[in-house]
Amino acid sequence: MRNLVEVSNVGKHVAKSSIDTALAAEKYRARVINVERRQLLISRIAGSQQVGDLMIPPNCEGLGRVRHFKRATSPGWPSNPLPIDPACISLGIPFQEVLTAQVFQNAACAWRCWYCFVPYALLAGDEKRGAWSTAEELVDLYMKEVNRPSVVDLSGGSPDLTPEWVVWTMNALQERGLVNQVYLWSDDNLSTDYLWTMLSARELDVLRSYRSYGRVACFKGFDESSFAFNTHARPQAFGLQFDRFKRLLDLEIDLYAYVTLTSPDIASISAGVPAFLDRLQEIHENLPLRTIPLRISTFSPVTARMTAERTASLCGQEQAIKAWNHEIERRFSSDMRQRRVTEVRFDHVAR
Ligand code: SF4
């Protein structure tokens, strides 16, 4: 069997170990899904290192947590309307500054981003740190919570390792008559093509036609070097993120993006950030306005992973966001920039 890691050079940055994304994804998918039984390995948040970062204790028998999504961010950074605005529109409620969501995390990810707020132990598909559950069981646990939020967020880990999870959850919500009461949101790490290779045409149809659903896909870095630095994955996987995003857009689902802007090479920002925006606009000219840059900060599991280079990249992201803001201003009219993220349309994507 080939190794999952190799040594590689990307520009000035030397990655100590680079994950072969396809191999790692295959390995971890096998650990966290049983298609026959329709079960997923869900991380047990209770008792994990993540608990220290939670505002309220884990719920759903230790398998869930409530996340507070906040629109306000840090000075100099764009506000973050995700998933607040799409959820409020879908639920027919006024726009909020803070929105709570019921989060479940699948128990694996192919990548090892140094800034990941999930402990690596909860990314390895370890049965001792999770529980096998069906989507129906998770929805039932959620429904038993007294003060449950109206948003369910399928997170990870890497939900794109187990695309069935989203469809099974849609089925479960539908069977319980909850489609109009619960907004479903899911994360996508753009690390696999499993959505197209693992789901049947019928399952894809469910995904495409479900009314109260939004998906956010995260670009990990603005160029190959920052991607490899952030994820520990081989740099070639950077470009595949764009191909996958384009395919997601072609499904005509309600789709958004995040990007992280940490890089080992501060000098690359001035050319790298505009080039990243160019690539987004090759997919759709409005895509940058549906893309929210995320400022990296250090949660409990991250502290022990910090190095001088990573610390420097936290400062570098402050330069990168200035370049991002400058480009957004240069590329879009003030009318476009003032629109809510939900009002930025992809209407004229060539299909
Ligand atoms: S892709 Fe997401 S879940 Fe995976 S390591 Fe990176 S931040 Fe964590």
Shape: globular
The largest sheet has its strands arranged as 5-6-8-9-10-11-12
According to CATH, what is the class?
A: Alpha Beta
Q: Would you tell me which CATH topology applies?
A: TIM Barrel
What number of domains? 1
- Helix content range: 25-40%
The largest pleated sheet is described as: 7 strands, mixed
Q: What is the N-to-C order of secondary-structure elements (H for helix, E for strand)?
A: EEHEEEHEEHEHEHHEHHEHEHHH
Q: What would you call the quaternary organization?
A: single chain
The count of β-strands is 12
How big a fraction of the residues is strand?
Answer: 15-25%
Kindly state the mean pLDDT as a whole number?
A: 94
SS-derived structural category: alpha/beta
CA gyration radius, whole angstroms: 19 Å
By DSSP (H or I, 4+ residues per run), the number of helices equals: 12
